[in-house]
Write a structure and sequence with these properties.
Layout lengths: L1 H6 L2 H11 L2 E2 L4 E2 L4 E3 L6 E3 L4 E2 L4 E3 L2 E4 L4 E2 L4 E4 L2 E4 L4 E2 L4 E5 L3 E3 L4 E2 L4 E3 L1 E2 L11 E2 L2 E3 L4 E2 L4 E2 L4 E2 L4 E2 L4 E2 L7 E4 L4 E5 L9 H19 L2 E8 L2 E10 L2 E10 L17 E5 L5 H4 L4 E4 L4 E2 L5 H14 L4 E2 L4
Parallel strand pairs: 1-4, 2-5, 3-6, 4-7, 5-8, 6-9, 7-10, 8-11, 9-12, 10-13, 11-14, 12-15, 13-18, 14-19, 15-20, 18-21, 20-23, 22-24, 28-29, 29-30, 31-32
Antiparallel strand pairs: 16-17, 24-25, 26-27, 27-28, 30-31
Length: 326
């Protein structure tokens, strides 16, 4: 069964999972070579806009994956335990998660970096000869970030908004709001000493930085830039079907959104990044908008809109909730 599912393209695989009884949301993709098996298909749940990349295998008793979550390529997750991944999570390429009989849980916006390893059991040498044996659930709480090549031992918990340094071996719980590193991992300092305060002015500067990176990331040719207090408009060219098409990328605070019109911008070709909510009357004429303060965006069913949403997620670690009918 796994081999059959693996070779199917996502456009066939996703409907087949639904037909078999799995709960699969909108915009889900399951890459070539990947498959998910549980004790029954009804025990598989995948939320809206989540993606399982190529050549990833998940075999557990129960699989629950939230909304807007990405599981990268060449991930191997198996065992009799339960996989419970929240909304907006990330599991990087080449991760190994051995569930044996206990569970692995990730809260909202939690991340597990490339090449990391999770074991919910620790035993190899004969138990009858006195060698230790340890089993326990492994938990990453909300906004916990475990980067590349970290080993998580059985029974450990990484607390809310905590970060673990790359290459660490976590043998004990990491308390919330902490930065821990080392072998074994120890708390180095509180997370508030790492995180910067972001007011509205700083937020605008950061969004401008993101916007200026977008044309370079996609290889677009930026042709002009208009700048006034609280508003920036970048015009760029996008090649499609061997023709160049002009697009606009705007960054605006809430007070300056309506100033866009004076630059003669075709709003149907406008991608808008804002520092707060966008007026209802202005939303409807836009190609796509992103409220980067509240992490919300308009419908991304258009392939280009989805590419921009994915650029924010993969390059800047910003995952916006999609408002389907905005």
């Amino acid at each position: 069964m796994g081999l059959i599912l693996a070779v199917l393209p996502s456009v066939l695989k996703v409907p087949l999972y639904k037909l078999a009884g799995a709960n699969v949301g909108k915009g889900v993709s399951i890459g070539f070579g990947s498959f998910i098996l549980a004790s029954s298909f009804s025990k598989i749940s995948i939320g809206n806009h989540s993606q399982i990349r190529q050549f990833t295998v998940i075999i557990c008793s129960d699989v629950s994956i939230g909304n807007y979550t990405e599981i990268a390529m060449f991930v191997w997750i198996w065992g009799a335990g339960r996989l419970d991944v929240g909304d907006k999570c990330y599991i990087g390429p080449r991760c190994i998660i051995n569930l044996r009989k206990n569970d692995f849980k990730m809260g909202e916006y939690a991340g597990l970096g490339p090449g990391s390893i999770v074991y919910t059991h620790g035993q190899w040498l004969p138990y009858t000869q006195g060698w230790p044996r340890r089993y326990g659930d492994v938990v990453l709480e909300d906004y916990a970030w475990v980067p590349a090549r970290v080993f998580l031992s059985p029974g450990v918990k990484v607390g809310t908004k905590s970060i673990v340094g790359s290459g660490a071996v976590v043998t004990k719980d990491i308390p919330p709001h902490s930065f821990a590193a080392g072998v074994p991992a120890k708390v180095i300092q509180q997370i508030e000493k790492i995180k910067n305060h972001v007011d509205q002015d700083e937020l605008f500067k950061r969004i401008v930085e993101i916007a200026e990176d977008l044309p370079d990331f996609f290889g677009f040719n930026a042709t002009s830039k208009h700048h006034q207090e609280g508003l920036i408009i970048i015009q760029f060219e996008r090649n499609k079907f061997l023709r160049k098409h002009s697009w606009y990328l705007g960054v605006s605070n809430s007070e300056c959104i309506h100033e866009v019109a004076k630059y003669g911008v075709d709003t149907k070709k406008l991608i808008l990044f804002s520092t707060g909510p966008i007026p209802e009357g202005f939303k409807e004429g836009l190609f796509v908008w992103f409220d980067l303060k509240n992490l919300k965006c308009s419908d991304i069913s258009d392939s280009f809109a989805f590419e921009i949403w994915n650029f924010l997620r993969r390059t800047w670690c910003i995952t916006c909730d999609v408002l389907e009918h905005s």
